[in-house]
Write a structure and sequence with these properties.
The chain has three helices and two strands. By secondary structure, it is mostly helical. It has a two-stranded antiparallel sheet with strand order 1-2. Helix 1 crosses helix 3 (49-73). The two termini are 21 Å apart.
């Protein structure tokens, strides 16, 4: 795995994790009963963004270490995903 591939893998894992973490424990204007005129009741009021970014980074590091370890160890290779047998046979 090249350095670029490792960085791209981490970035993909980080953004996917962020999308999972963002809606956790969010308090909307509708929940608090203080809806600002012209905004949606589902707009976040308390979002704890800094804490969520740290949680996202921590989870992403753990997942990246596991996935990169699997890739570098060779337990799973590209050939494992060749379900249509389109790759050349091993020489």
């Amino acid at each position: 795995m090249t350095i670029t591939a490792a960085f791209v893998l981490f970035a993909v894992i980080w953004f996917l994790t962020l999308l999972v973490v963002l809606p956790v424990r969010i308090k909307t204007q509708g929940d608090l009963g203080e809806i600002v005129p012209g905004t949606h009741a589902g707009a976040p009021e308390v979002h704890h963004m800094k804490k969520k970014l740290w949680i996202t980074t921590g989870i992403s590091v753990v997942l990246w270490v596991i996935i990169a370890g699997i890739i570098l160890s060779g337990v799973i290779t590209v050939r494992d995903f060749d379900w249509l047998n389109q790759m050349e046979p091993r020489g």
